[in-house]
Amino acid sequence: MCGFAMAVEHGVLQALTPESRAHFARFVRDYERIRACEGRGGNDAGFYLDLPYRDASGRNTGQWRMRARSYDYLVRHLLAGLEPRHGGRILDLGAGNGWMSYRLALAGFRPCAVDLLGNASDGLGAARHYRARLPGLFPRVQAELARLPFADGQFDAAVFNASFHYAEDAEATLGEALRCVRAGGLVVISDTPWYAREESGRRMVAERQASFRQRYGSAGDTLASLDYLTDARLQRLADALSLRWDVHRPWYGLRWAARPLVARLRGRREPSRFRLYAARKG
């Protein structure tokens, strides 16, 4: 980032280079349009302040319920060893509207929210609503996850918040998160879909693209992103970056647990499953 001047707009540090901004322009435009059609964002502060435990819009309730259980598991089981009053510096990667940074700040941690989107409904600009309940708003940075504007070892943990599957270069993106955490620090991939078979993931992507074309007039495939995880993909990342993954399986409810069996009985492809993948920096 040497020689690159960063500005602050509406409280958000602008850390996208002109080249990165141009590269992601079409993706951001399509993504924001599709997200708006899906009912992301709310009309008042209450929508954001209730997340992830209540979706006031009623349009994505099931997804938010899952996000809430992943978040609770993260805090209770993975971040529990960090003492918020003596550190607890958490990098929230793919923060969106900043709901997780808001919850972490309430819990006494020191989060920093990073996302490509800066808009006021579904991006970092929406975090203004959290000022009502926080003594000071957490830092917000608009940046590319594979090019983070932070010093080495600056954070105690980095969490990919339902965002790792958007990575174009998974190894570079994970490597950047590792660079930014201290020795012994934690990197967590949360809420990225996992499949037992590569073919299932490819079929999911094809089905999603067909659905998006029909509903939104765009396949949503502007980026050559990772899209999903498999054990083989996770192992390649572990080998390349000298990591050991600890796999955590939060309980998302009986209906969610029964999805693989129901899919087999109905002759459908395996459904996505969600876990938390945690690794320590050596």
Automatic annotation (TrEMBL):
Enzyme class at the top of the EC tree: transferase
Alphabetically ordered keywords of this record: Methyltransferase, Transferase
Any one Pfam family match given in the protein's UniProt record, by short name: Methyltransf_11
EC number(s) stated in the UniProt entry for this protein: 2.1.1.-
InterPro entries cross-referenced by the UniProt entry: Methyltransf_11 (IPR013216), SAM-dependent_MTases_sf (IPR029063)
Key word Transferase present: yes
Domain Methyltransferase type: 91-189
Keyword flag Nucleus: no
GO term, biological process aspect, one: methylation
Highest taxon in the source lineage: Bacteria
GO molecular function, one term: methyltransferase activity
Signal sequence interval, chain numbering: none
PANTHER family hit by this protein: METHYLTRANSFERASE
Protein name, per record: Class I SAM-dependent methyltransferase
